[in-house]
From TrEMBL:
This is Elongation factor 4. It comes from Paenimyroides tangerinum. GO terms for cellular component: plasma membrane. GO terms for molecular function: GTP binding; GTPase activity; ribosome binding; translation elongation factor activity. The gene is lepA. It holds the Pfam family GTP_EFTU_D2. It is found in: Cell membrane. GTP binds at D14, H15, G16, K17, S18, T19, N130, K131, V132, D133. The keyword Protease does not apply.
Amino acid sequence: MKKIRNFCIIAHIDHGKSTLADRLLDATQTVTAREAQAQLLDSMDLERERGITIKSHAIQMEYKYKGEEYILNLIDTPGHVDFSYEVSRSIAACEGALLIVDAAQSIQAQTISNLYLALENDLEIIPVLNKVDLPSANPEEVSDDIVELLGCKLEDIIHASGKTGFGVDKILEAIVERVPAPKGNPDEPLQALIFDSVYNPFRGVEVIFRVINGQIKKGQKIKFMATDHEYFADEIGTLKLNQVAKQVISAGDVGYLISGIKEAKEVKVGDTITDAVVPTTNMISGFEDVKPMVFAGIYPVDTEDYEDLRSSMEKLQLNDASLVFQAESSAALGFGFRCGFLGMLHMEIIQERLEREFNMTVITTVPNVSYFAYTKKDPDTPMIVNNPSDLPEPSKLDRVEEPYIKATIITKSDFVGNVMSLCIEKRGVITNQTYLTPERVELNFDMPLAEIVFDFYDRLKTVSKGYASFDYHPIGMRTSKLVRLDVLLNAQPVDALSALIHESSAYHIGKKMCEKLKELIPRQQFDIPIQAAIGAKVIARETIKALRKDVTAKCYGGDISRKRKLLEKQKKGKKRMRQVGNVEIPQEAFMAVLKLN
Ligand code: GTP
């Protein structure tokens, strides 16, 4: 066990984590040339395209140091805030972390939030100044920032480049020298932390774990403590580039387990595996049931595709335990599903996977967070509202609570004013302001999560000219003065366009909403009035004027093939339209409230 090192790489997005991981695999000859492929750890297609590590994996390397063989387990962590719980569990499986900082970008919001997670888990931090090959690199200044942040010595910082391979040997040496060996006892009852799971349609769910104490043996009867399910360890092994089956995995090491589990949701990241007969009394702390944060309706464009959509969602859920959904119906859109996601990125991924892997064309409604509504009749019991149209009538409502987050923003001092105004406009309350250096400031706000779901990221980028990074953590529910803003098209309320909005901005948003819908909904053969209303009160109105000309008219008679082409083109454009009453609404219109600026 003294020869094992478990470590992860933590970094702000794009600071070069995947590239550096590839270099470590090359340098330890974990990857043969034939297998080498850019960014090996990102195995899903979608991940590679987006350049974001969505799911964490682990890989074992062998490394010779002063004549002795060491096993280095690299535990990959996802880089996006939507997946921060998975990051925290991966970190909990390690004794050390490489903290990568881009030599041109310096410390950013995720550098800090991931560092805090690592420090909470008592990890040894190895600071790495990456991308030193860049002409725009500023090694002296950024090193000072790192020293300031960590309280480490200047000599502790390793200069490296994932691009050229510079510094990679030093990093490997530092992992052996500085990361402590695992401490567990192989003779105690089994206690292993599940930090990831991977869905395999042929073999079932593969559970990725770190043994803290005891041993796991092939064929052993085991128990997952949080779910209280028992299984047999049909196959266990270590994770090289491919899986390598083993008979035993002992305290300190990382491995995979296959035991005939068919659905991802049976396996909970953060759960403890123990022996079914001689269980440990200590469940590993920190287990949480992950809850979806953002909800939206997903509807088939063609109502006939409802059953296909259901079976596609069920298949997606088999391999994505964090996706939840339940059937719902909308007066405007018919039958569909209310789906829960970890965040906006997760929602986009699901939508994209439905289209690519299942060939579904869907309409997604405006995302919203999950509210607690208390009625006057029962002011002590929260009613969970995941769809604005489920909010009780204002006359029956006692109060509404919404989820709040603690936001961390790091920006240049020049932009502090802009960032503050934006956060205040988004109902944020500043809780802390720290100058990391004379030019760089860390700001903390308490803010409603709903304001982040709306156009926050884009606005932050704009007001800071791109020089702001952002991260957040949920901090619980708070009472807010929220009203339901309804939209009527042709005097018919369209439930899928309703949104819960803070009282103070309802008029402004109602007005903007009408203007935006006027832009987005194509003109038709008749006038279409658009109204925004709170309860029975109309607060804004616009009209889409009737279309006069026939689009095919300009192909004066003769050319039939041209005419057909034009009609075909129109038909294609219609693909993502929904007929609501007698008005055709394009997909963008359902997202209008997100794009009001
Ligand atoms: P996520 O997985 O999205 O969090 O990103 P990451 O941190 O893994 O970054 P990634 O390795 O994908 O690198 C981001 C970009 O920086 C890519 O375009 C890389 O080619 C580039 N890059 C990474 N390391 C270096 C480096 O040492 N020098 C230079 N010049 N570019 C680098």
